[in-house]
């Protein structure tokens, strides 16, 4: 059977990774969460003190990019791959609000994007992949077989993200999550290098009021048409 590349882009917390994981499971594809890679680079910058309050030392990070090795390792119990930074599992550490507050700034740096995009393209060489992010259908795989673009109201998205963080025991306020979601969208959509935009040939899904299951079924029929 033919193996394809599925690109999923969209604003933060629109359920991209939920859909991507379901697709990967159903079609036996590899799922790559590119946001986790930008988050891991951000964590590296924090760990090495390239960040002081809101100030990020871009040059120090750029000079040290070679020290960063990213890898995904599949966790059977979870059913998806976890992010490793220099061979250490950082899956939990990259999902904090602190990392979320800095990641969009890190993601504006072209040298960072160049490194990660090259790694992502390599992972897609053999197709059979579903990748989510902000520039997958526009920059990483402009020839992807199927492109999806996810949206939802900021309030719905912040509510989802807030619940995720509270459920895992983080002490956060809804207002700061809402602010973070909107601020990231603003930075991601307005940056010069690879801004978040819908590719011309992407199919848009607004899931403000649509359940994941209904959406997943619709997306599966789009995938099946391509196989
Ligand atoms: O997907 P997630 O919300 O974890 O992504 C975190 C951040 O990483 C985004 O807000 C964006 O700044 C950056 N990102 C990106 N390009 C991608 C994936 C994520 O710039 N392909």
From TrEMBL:
NCBIfam families: cmk (TIGR00017). It comes from the Bacteria. Residues 6-223 form the Cytidylate kinase domain. Belongs to the cytidylate kinase family. Type 1 subfamily. One of its GO terms (molecular function) is ATP binding. GO terms for biological process: pyrimidine nucleotide metabolic process. Pfam families: Cytidylate_kin (PF02224). This is Cytidylate kinase. One of its GO terms (cellular component) is cytoplasm. Keywords: ATP-binding, Cytoplasm, Kinase, Nucleotide-binding, Transferase. Its main location: cytoplasm. It is an enzyme of class 2 (transferase). It catalyses: CMP + ATP = CDP + ADP; dCMP + ATP = dCDP + ADP. InterPro entries: Cytidylate_kin, Cytidylate_kinase_dom, P-loop_NTPase. ATP binds at residues 10-18. SUPFAM superfamilies: P-loop containing nucleoside triphosphate hydrolases. Its EC number is 2.7.4.25. It is found in: Cytoplasm. It comes from Polaribacter marinus.
